[in-house]
């Protein structure tokens, strides 16, 4: 039996009430002068508004405020850690589980395991709670545009030339992504061999805590109607489930545009048994190599002041180091710890613990191409809310508008902002930091109308093009070299062409032209609007497949759904234990050979909860109560 739709997940019509909620909030926060006769209700309203405004204007540096300490007393800076020596280890300073990475999978995993065992989480970034660039939908693009060493996102450029990002903050990708929440295709659950009953327990555990129903903007309503008009049917209403047709999914942004990340799931853990260290950069995993197989015994990490510490596992065969550092971080850290292709490790003078040629192999990123939707009316900012799930191997999504907040980058394109490297106006190999800055400079001359529209996003599902990850040095803070080989397989290119043709139909739909108040444009006009004049080969006709293939190659960007590098059967076994060593497990998207569903975060969070429950059940049996 596959996972089924819960009662709270039934298809229902959507009502756009976000404007009313927003104006209500603004109305409530208009302060008048103090009065001796102010009623107690007025005083309470004033205090509520003051608190809300303070939340909206918190300093932008990660973890700079300590208001979260009451709810999360187990989170503290890495420098507070007291490293035990091996000769003095006691039950108070060793851990049953050490989780590397407090991300989308690591947080629910830690919360679950802490119900019965001592857990240490080591996260290289800070907390998301006090960072407005992380917390608010309107500032989504700012974190991705921030390339400073303390940013919540760490940008990297694949060898293909496509800009990308990896999380560097508690909550991981859920702290910097577009927020869309949708479950995996049932066939994915079956393929990876997960227990459907446990899956059905794990998804709702996440959803009840941090997932919301989107406010559903008029732009997204036009997307829905245009998808249906273009044949992407039926309409499945609001649902978390992966169903062919058009649907509206969940979001981790609430009705006020505030983000709720995987970090909030930590609050449901056992506070007495859970320790979360932020600004803790793991350098390597420590192994005991005296036995028949190498055995993980602890990790070495660096705190925010540059001091090194060692965290040690309890002397129990069930204790584990669990890697949840993501599709980039996990294969990178495995190799830095001595597990990977022997010849590559030796080139960098890394002592070889285990020769495994498959670490870092099978890296995949879902290529995305877009279609600009011009509009004569201002468009409210929205990220992904509506999705078209087709049977031809592409997903159609949409984003719109730009923010006008004081802290914002003015006149940006949201998900498609050049500031975050989504520079589809230049072929990948020509993209560079200088090219981005040049575009940002020149766009000041663009008319404001150029930023009133939105984009239709076409994503290739389950790409067949495969790449790899390699170390460039032994500094864990530096990005490894990552290659995705976008469109190297002809099947991916074939599906991209189909996706672009569908995106053109969507934009040409009467529902969009009525909403945007723009005349229906030809396919050639839409393509030219999308790429401007900078692309090296502009399609001359929508039926020219060769031209559309070139369009796909030249305008490819990412939607940040990369995965792979530690595949089941090659690097880990079906329970995600690392092959050839003891007490080391991987729980993250590096084990996937396809991205689950239209957007993976729901399943990655579910995986953290699921694996936590499974580990408890396997270790405690009936005593686990699962």
From TrEMBL:
Disulphide bonds in the chain: 496-552
PROSITE patterns assigned: GMC_OXRED_1 (PS00623), GMC_OXRED_2 (PS00624)
Cofactor: FAD
Keyword set, alphabetical order: Disulfide bond, FAD, Flavoprotein, Signal
Keyword match Oxidoreductase: no
Molecular function (Gene Ontology), one example: flavin adenine dinucleotide binding
InterPro entries (UniProt xref): FAD/NAD-bd_sf, GMC_Oxidoreductase-Related, GMC_OxRdtase, GMC_OxRdtase_N, GMC_OxRtase_C
Record flagged with keyword Transport: no
Ranges for domain Glucose-methanol-choline oxidoreductase N-terminal: 167-190, 326-340
Domain of life of the source: Eukaryota
Binding site for FAD: 123-124, 169, 282, 560-561, 589, 600-601
Family according to the record: Belongs to the GMC oxidoreductase family.
Designated name of the protein: Glucose-methanol-choline oxidoreductase N-terminal domain-containing protein
Upper lineage: Eukaryota, Viridiplantae, Streptophyta, Embryophyta, Tracheophyta
